[in-house]
Amino acid sequence: MERRRPPRLVLPRPRRRPKRDRHARTRVAFLRYSYYDIVLKFFVEHVLDADYLPLPEPTKRTVELGSRNSNDSVCAPFKHILGDYLEALELGADVLVQFAGPCRLGYYGELQESILRDMGYEFEMLNFATVTGKPLTDYIEVCKKKVNPNLSVPHGVRGMLTAFKMIECLDEAQDFYLTHAGFEAERGSFDRALAAYHAEMRAAANERDIAEAQRRGLESLRALPVRRPARPVRVGVVGEYFTAADPHSNLGLERKLLDLGVEVHRQLNMTNRNLRYNERNLRAGISDYVRYDMGPTSSMTIAAALRYAQEGFDGVVHLKSAGCTPEVDCIPVLQQVSRDTGLPILYLSYDSQTSDTGLDTRLEAFYDMLAMKKEKTI
Fold first, then answer.
1. Structural domain contains residue 166
2. Which residues contact 261 (CB under 8 A, 6 or more apart)?
3. Cross-strand partners of 51
4. Which of 24, 49, 256, 330 is the most exposed place for a label (fewest CB within 10 A)?
């Protein structure tokens, strides 16, 4: 009997699926840090070509989560950041980005990663502290390894330079806001204009969009009516890199000062500390008080306070997290600056238990003292 061969099995040709790289499904989250989430969104979407995971406004739970899973001896920024990461992972983040520094926060990324992995979370940690001070190409190589293997180095470098330009624009607008919002003729007008500007900048996809958003945003802010007194109370804000610049960490200190009718200045921002920083020049200007580099923001803290004194400011508020060693070391120097120049300085230290009520009381008393002193000098 003739054996028949089994019929040949012909499989249908697989349908071609649209190409989608692994990184296109990657959800990237950053820690919360002032208005710089706008830049971080641009970086993720237009440099890394990945999905940006925005975090909602932080709540009391955010700090509680971070504090509960941190050692008591670490600074408040560590707890804020860890709480941010936990909420990001709960929302489905695949990659967490740590850029914090330049103090011991630069070492915290590894510790926070270890804590989160011990808690059972699976994720990638893109820790820029590992390439701090190196060329931009090294930053892009780390991004290729952790997020997008197809990332072009030239494209990445161009995108990061555009992100740097966005930082400068945002800081310029914030400086204008702090200088004028305390005298707004219509309550809330500056906050609304700033929010609209931020929304437009958040939608920017290239350098042209950024330039247009900047032009329109500044025009809108400058057009707002103000009722500025002839001799307003002027206050400079100095201090630790994270706490002094982040309103969630300092309980909205700048807004509180603006509500009191104060002209606010803050030299510390990412433009001045990261993009245009010159330690040698700063220390030359404070050589009567400091001979050595005391730490990440120390020279800027002292130089800014001295400049505010020389420019006739009415007072300075010094902000730091509890246990911040470099800023603790600044305090005796600031006290000497105060004695030499007569500049009043309010020292505020924050931890995870700091309350709005106590802060309001101290700020109001400080403002009343500055206002009365100013009246006597007429």
1. yes
2. 182, 183, 229, 232, 233
3. 27
4. 24
